[in-house]
Amino acid sequence: MKKDLVIVLAPDSFKESMTAKEVCVAMERGIKKVNSNIRCIHVPMADGGEGTMQSLVDATGGEVYSLEVVGPLGNKVKAEYGILGNGEIGVLEMASASGIHLVSLEERNPLITTTYGTGELIKACLDRGVKKLLIGIGGSATNDGGVGVIQALGGRLLDKEGNELGFGGGELEKLDRIDLTNFDRRLKDVVIEVACDVSNPLCGENGASYIFGHQKGASVEMIKILDNNLKHYAKVIKEQFGKDVLEIAGAGAAGGLGAGLMVFLNGNLKKGIEIVIEYSGLEKKVKNCDMVWTGEGSIDFQTQYGKTPLGVATVAKKYNKPVVALAGRVGDDIDILYEKGIDSIFGIMRGVTTIDEALKNGKENIERTSENIVRLMEML
């Protein structure tokens, strides 16, 4: 084996067990047990969902900040955002402020949940002078078309009497006009990229309300109301701003937040893994390495659809680098992944165990598996 081997470690988090950074550290510990001369380059990854902010901050040597914002139900919650290492790029996950995990099953009601807190996170990034914003929009508890964000940034949504609308998708039926007189002017000078892996339109049977409303607590009747309200919202937008968001792919993401970000913040929707690959600097690091290791909690045939391991493998194959993937669970029909760029897949479990034990022992299992892989490599 080459003496001065360089390995890029680019895993996703193992959810509920390890962050992507912690996976990198455990991988390196196992590798170094066998060969201390191997150089490991850590590039913590994510696919645009949970963990994206932390991964990009870790990959660039940035900083995480926390603040109290308005939660989905109008209550106060603690949320986080990050500033990447260059100090010019902010990154946030809407779920941190407006996520479904912040609302109990009994309280879920998209007629009243708001994205206001996400707008407050955006404002906090603007206050730090960012030139670019990366926003992940998965895991929402909302169906308000992003109007909460507009309100938090100074916009006013008014009914026919000039009264401001309250929070939630249930209020949109009253919308008469949108006043952007006091909308945060700093947004005009900021480039906004949105991590969005769904292509649902705003309304209709494949839209935000019908596809995602039930999991957010909407009844069949509520879904009809929400869908009609978003149609009315789109109608007002078209009449007032000349933009038709009704059929745009991705407009229905996060309860219509996709539409709101596109119209009012000029957001550009991109696949989450593409954003993370770009801003983590993965390609430059892979270009000059000898091999690449990746992984996530579960790898199966669904991994081919925009998940981290395949995204990493796609970059690696541009430069003919071998790719090893580690997973807590290796599922069915993984042969397609070998065809698409992953050379070898290893499960890290050492025997039958409970889920709690597997999560608790994740770092140890990653370390042990990494050690065994390198021992095999040393034999070649």
UniProtKB/TrEMBL annotation:
Cite the Gene3D superfamilies for this sequence: Glycerate kinase, domain 1, Glycerate kinase, domain 2
Offer one Pfam family short name for this entry.
Answer: Gly_kinase
Signal peptide coordinates: none
Molecular function GO labels: glycerate kinase activity
Task: Please indicate which superkingdom the organism of origin belongs to.
Answer: Bacteria
Keyword field = Kinase, Transferase
Q: Which SUPFAM superfamilies match?
A: Glycerate kinase I
| Enzyme Commission code(s) on record | 2.7.1.31
Q: Does the keyword Ribosomal protein apply?
A: no
Family statement drawn from the similarity comment of this UniProt entry: Belongs to the glycerate kinase type-1 family.
Matching NCBIfam families, A to Z? glycerate kinase
| Protein's recorded name | Glycerate kinase
Task: Please spell out the taxonomic lineage of the organism that makes this protein.
Answer: Bacteria, Bacillati, Bacillota, Clostridia, Eubacteriales
Which gene carries the instructions for this protein?
A: glxK
